[in-house]
Design brief:
Among the domains are: about 80 residues, UDP-n-acetylglucosamine1-carboxyvinyl-transferase, Chain, CATH 3.65.10.10; about 210 residues, Enolpyruvate transferase domain (UDP-n-acetylglucosamine1-carboxyvinyl-transferase, Chain, Alpha-beta prism), CATH 3.65.10.10. By secondary structure, it is an alpha/beta fold. The chain is built from 13 helices and 18 strands. The strands form 5 sheets. It has a 4-stranded mixed sheet. The protein has a 4-stranded mixed sheet with strand order 2-3-5-4.
Length: about 425
């Protein structure tokens, strides 16, 4: 069995945090030797270096939100804007927090959304008597990350607390930010039980050999495709995911056991993870008929997981029983690059599946009583969302004439995706 190398980009999430610390330290961003080559990260680097008075972040939500905090911290008079997708992604709670510190951010179009302009500078003196910031993280954990990064550089304060309120989700990303600060010798503790972040601000120690891990979000598409190859071609394949690490700061790494339950074998080695597959293509062999997956710590993995479970269910031999597969805590997917609940459903319907709402937070995967013919010409509507496009790529193994209305959108996070899978 030949070993195939599945080459992954570096982690976007880690890249953005390290680049922000380099920027705050007024160091050369080139000090990060292997940043993600995703469009988001390259745009972040470009815009941090830009001297323009109006900066366009296109659809790059994380870079735009972090940059908003960075520029407000240094008092840069600048306008931040983006495309229609970015202008639908909320920023109100972050702006409220920054304005309470003196940023004077004003909305130019719709309240609570980009575009906006920064007219003031953050002043840590406002925290001297009460060094506690109350921040609503309901809409995005990125608000906490942005605030943590700038608070870490308020040297005139011995300690700052950020009290998180609102709906709990994506704690793994907040924990990643805390651990990144710790790696740069900035003391930071995230107490999840109390929803409290404590930071002791100080100048970061920048290692001479900063290295970013491989991206776990990207690896999941490889796991998914490897399983699909096994299920459809009835052959085993051996793929190596170089530089993929466990344990990892990245929340998506927590989904590995879910893929293992579906038949993935993962051999964790020093320089990466080597994966093969078991001969499991029926849900009955993999798990019980009632499955609940708490997705709060890995929201970006949800489209991949939903598509993978649907694929396994679609390929179930013989009578197709009803499974109870619930994805918990995914309501915030409606404010990602697209409304991912809607985008998933538009495409799942092609294959006879649907996500139905169980309550405010949870959705159940349901099989309908029809599906398209495998010889039909179908089109995946990506909504120009990279994760939707990549999540449905394995269906082309069953529907050879399957098309995608936008294949270029994957450059946002995984520019080499199509070359890696050759669907």
């Amino acid at each position: 069995m030949n070993l195939t190398q599945f080459h992954l980009p570096s982690s976007k999430s880690e890249s953005h945090r390290v680049l922000a610390l380099l920027y705050l330290s007024k160091l050369d961003l080139k000090g990060l030797k292997n940043p993600s080559h995703s469009r988001d990260t390259q745009l972040f680097i470009h815009n941090l270096q830009s001297k323009e008075s109006c900066i366009d972040f296109h659809d790059a939500g994380t870079p735009a939100r972090i940059a908003l905090a960075l520029f407000a911290f240094e008092g840069r008079k600048v306008t931040l804007t983006g495309n229609q997708s970015l202008q639908k992604r909320p920023i109100k709670a972050l702006v409220d927090g920054l304005n309470s510190l003196g940023a004077k951010i004003k909305y130019l179009k719709n309240d609570g959304f980009f575009p906006c302009t920064i007219e003031g500078q953050i002043n840590s003196e406002s925290l001297r008597d009460n060094p506690n910031i109350v921040l609503d993280r309901t809409e995005s954990s990125q608000f906490a990350t942005a605030m943590m990064l700038i608070c870490s550089q308020m040297f005139d304060l011995p300690k700052i607390q950020i009290s998180l309120i609102g709906k709990e989700h994506s704690n793994s990303y907040i924990e990643m930010t805390a651990k990144t600060l710790n790696q740069f010798q900035i003391p930071c503790i995230f107490n999840q039980a109390d929803d409290l972040i404590e930071i002791n601000p100080q100048k970061p120690f920048i290692p001479s050999d900063i290295y970013i891990e491989a991206d776990w979000s990207a690896a999941l598409y490889g796991f998914q495709y490897l399983l699909a190859l096994r299920w459809t071609k009835k052959q085993n394949y051996e793929w190596c995911f170089p530089q993929l690490k466990l344990p990892s700061l990245q929340g998506d790494s927590q989904t590995l056991l879910i893929f293992v339950s579906l038949g993935l074998n993962a051999d964790i080695q020093e320089n990466g993870i080597v994966c093969t597959t078991q001969n499991i293509h029926s849900l009955e062999n993999a798990f019980q008929k009632s499955v609940s997956i708490d997705c709060r710590n890995f929201p970006d993995a949800v489209p991949t997981l939903v598509s993978t479970f649907s694929l396994a269910w679609f390929l179930k031999d013989g009578k197709k029983p009803n499974y109870n597969i619930v994805f918990q805590g995914i309501s915030n997917l409606i404010t990602k690059e697209s409304n991912r609940i809607e985008a998933l459903n538009v495409n799942l319907l092609l294959f006879g599946f649907e996500l139905t709402k169980v309550n405010e937070e949870d959705y159940k995967l349901t099989q309908l009583n029809y599906s398209a013919d495998v010889n039909e010409i179908l089109t995946i509507k990506t909504f120009h969302d990279h994760r939707i496009a990549m999540s449905f790529a394995p269906w082309k193994l069953i529907f050879p004439q399957l098309q995608f209305d936008d294949t270029d959108c994957v450059v946002k996070s995984f520019p080499d995706f199509w070359n890696q899978i050759n669907p």
